[in-house]
Design goal:
This protein is mainly α. Helices cover about 75% and strands about 0% of the residues. Helix 2 crosses helix 3 (about 55-60).
């Protein structure tokens, strides 16, 4: 008896349709959240306004929190973010790469700040935001791996700083806490924050030869 093999078909058209549906659901949810508030906006309402069945919404996002996470992802990691990442990966000079890391962090935090301010006005509660923040931080940590890999493989990491430590430092310094303290609490401009962060990353992660800074002379 002849066995038939199952084949999996890759359909770019279906993927594009699925992505378009996800975006339509997320855009609809955002509009309803801002108009009616978090508690009053239900999955059923979102589905009806988006022109899909409620199970479609659950299949795409799992929950209302999942929809919030997608809205934030679209705001923070949209076309402007992707353009900056492409520029950074095409840059060979290590200090310029870290300057791009600072610019990318600024882009993410500026975008998120505007979105989160709207959400708080819509009554999105802190536990929901905390869960989303945790997932986003894990994604951000993963996305920064190529930057550290490049610095390590090219021999530009500061002496005594391992790739693992460098990755932790990059993740910590580009996190939202410094942005919140300096830009939101101390009223720094985003430009000033970006410049400060680029200098700090250079000092913390690059060898003097890669950063352009003179080496410290040993005391006699």
């Amino acid at each position: 008896m002849k066995k038939t093999s199952e084949r999996q078909y890759h359909s770019p058209v279906r993927e594009q349709q699925a992505e378009a549906t996800r975006r339509r659901i997320a855009d609809t949810a955002r509009r309803l959240l801002l108009a009616h508030g978090y508690e009053a906006t239900t999955i059923g309402n979102i589905a009806r306004q988006a022109g899909v069945a409620a199970p479609t919404v659950y299949a795409a996002f799992g929950s209302k929190q999942g929809i919030l996470a997608e809205i934030l992802r679209q705001a923070a990691f949209g076309p402007a973010y992707r353009d900056l990442v492409r520029e950074a990966l095409a840059t060979v000079e290590p200090s310029r790469r870290l300057a791009f890391a600072a610019r990318i962090a600024r882009q993410i935090h500026d975008s998120e700040r505007a979105e989160l301010d709207l959400w708080r006005g819509a009554g999105v509660v802190a536990p929901e935001l905390a869960a989303i923040e945790h997932k986003r931080e894990c994604d951000r940590y993963s996305a920064q791996e190529p930057m550290i890999a490049y610095l390590a493989e090219s021999g530009h990491l500061r002496r005594g700083v391992s790739p693992a430590v460098a990755r932790d430092v990059l993740w910590a310094l580009t996190g939202r806490d410094f942005y919140r303290m300096l830009v939101i609490e101390r009223s720094w401009t985003s430009d000033r924050y970006e410049s400060w962060l680029a200098d700090l990353l250079t000092i913390a992660l690059l060898s003097p030869s890669a950063s352009g800074r003179p080496k410290r002379r040993k005391r006699q």
